Amino acid sequence: MSTNTMTAPNTLTADAVESIKKVIQEQKKSPVDPMGLCDRCSKNAKSQFLLPGHETPLLFCAHHMRAHLGGLMAAGPVSFWVAAEDLWTVRGVEVPAQNHRRSGDGLTDA
Known about the structure:
By secondary structure, this protein is α+β, with helices and mostly antiparallel strands. Helix content is 24%, strand content 10%. The chain has a domain at 14-87. The chain has a 3-stranded antiparallel sheet.
């Protein structure tokens, strides 16, 4: 049993990495229902994959998305959406920098 909570994904092909990069650059608002739960556990879903031959998309939390990303991309999803900030551990995928700066002293809203 491992204590590593940042699961490394299966090996991704160069084509899969390029496909993920393209989707990250083009994706806008999340199609994932805010109340949606991961298909593997009870955490909030942060990614969605629609596979060929399926009518409903698979939903995954960040941990399970990273754990199954190689297999999901190998299955050739019809469409997918992933939260870019959850891909920072995936080799070859450049995650856009997040701007979390706020004005003020950080203790108040001023």
